[in-house]
Design brief:
By secondary structure, this protein is of the alpha/beta class. It has two domains: 116 residues, Response regulator (Rossmann fold); 39 residues, Arc Repressor Mutant, subunit A (Orthogonal Bundle), CATH 1.10.10.60. It contains eight helices and seven strands; from the N terminus they run E-H-E-H-E-E-E-H-E-H-E-H-H-H-H. The two termini are 18 Å apart.
Length: 188
């Protein structure tokens, strides 16, 4: 996450500017919290789903930035609970494991946007304050076809509880081919 200070054109709306940041990467949470405070938000942080939901229950924030994968579960549970407790709240989901299915689910559960890490603070603010009627701008650097394929394979692999044989069967792929793909680094 980079903190670019080109935030002059973005102004916070009048009213409550409480923000809950939920991510299990302590250093990332602290950097994002400082960057968001510089932009006028009153931030609280949480590193677990349990703690985040407790904070939402006691004092629901107007805004939330939630990591998709947390040590104790799925960040979409936090987005869903926030929408139930405070329907007018705006949330953004951040993830290093982006794919279309989870993006659609995040939006259906009430997220304003779905951003891939690393996202800078200005991207997060823009996503939080964007008019829901406006379309999001196309990405400056969209995923390559190889990356989209890799993401799809990773998603199916996770859904099959990291079982290579079951994943290969569902993808109609030879098991050894899948093992070679899984052993490689993610394409750009």
């Amino acid at each position: 996450m980079t903190d670019t200070s080109t935030q002059d054109e973005i102004t916070l709306p009048d009213g409550e500017v409480t923000l809950l940041i939920v991510d299990d990467d302590h250093a990332f949470v602290q950097r994002l919290a400082r960057a968001m405070e510089k932009r006028g938000f009153e931030t609280e942080t949480s590193e677990t789903i349990e703690d985040a939901i407790a904070r939402i229950e006691s004092n629901p924030p107007a805004y939330a930035v939630v990591d998709m994968r947390l040590g104790d579960g799925n960040g979409l549970d936090v987005v869903d609970r926030l929408r139930q407790v405070r329907p007018d709240a705006r949330s953004v989901v951040l993830t290093g494991y982006g794919n279309i299915a989870t993006a659609v689910t995040a939006v259906k559960l009430g997220a304003m946007d779905y951003l891939s890490k690393p996202a800078d603070a200005d991207d997060v603010v823009t996503a939080l304050l964007r008019n829901p009627e406006d379309r999001a701008a196309p990405p400056d650097n969209p995923m390559s076809a190889d990356r989209v394929r890799w993401e799809h394979i990773q998603r199916i692999y996770e859904l099959c509880d990291r079982n290579v044989s079951e994943t290969a069967r569902r993808l109609n792929m030879h098991r050894r081919t899948l093992q070679r793909i899984l052993a490689k680094r993610a394409p750009r």
